[in-house]
Amino acid sequence: MSAKKSVAVLIGGKVYNLSGYEEEEYMQKVAAYINGKIEEFSKLEGYRKQSADMKATLLELNIADDYFKAKEQIEKYELDAQQKERDLYNLKHELITDQVKSEDNSSRIRELEKENAELRQIKAKLEASLEDALLGPLSGKPRNDLDT
């Protein structure tokens, strides 16, 4: 755990000493946010007419509203991220399944191509045998006694 730090910040025209474990930049950022809210409300005529307590309460309510809206937005983003993680997981699973199927199909294609080549050879031998049986060998010798 880091050491506790003390930082002077300006909020609403007054200097406050803040202590905490956060970095000075962070504490200045928080003070700047509050100053921005004070400036935003100060532009509203109805706000300027309110008592100091009412101004503080309105400011607190507005900051709480910002907090809850931001929290709701974060929850929405987290749900979206979870859904996207599930979708990505499912897509990866589909990809792996498709790759396995593709590899299986490639193996099957190679087997069928080999079988096809063997069948072509058998076909060629059978055609040659049939041709020899029907026409006789084509060596120029008479096929039988009828050819002489």
Features:
mainly alpha
Topology at a glance:
Blueprint: E1 5-11, E2 14-20, H1 24-42, H2 45-48, H3 52-135
Antiparallel strand pairs: 1-2
Describe this structure in words.
By secondary structure, this protein is mainly alpha-helical. Helices cover 72% and strands 9% of the residues. It has three helices and two strands, in the order ββααα. It has a two-stranded antiparallel sheet. A hairpin with a 2-residue loop joins strand 1 and strand 2. The longest helix has 84 residues, at 52-135. The chain is rod-shaped.
Give the SSE string. EEHHH
Determine the number of helices (DSSP H or I, runs of at least 4 residues): 3
The largest β sheet comes out as: 2 strands, antiparallel
- What gap, in angstroms, lies between the N and C termini? 113 Å
Short summary of the structure?
The protein is mainly alpha-helical and 148 residues long. It has helices spanning 24-42, 45-48, 52-135, and strands at residues 5-11, 14-20.
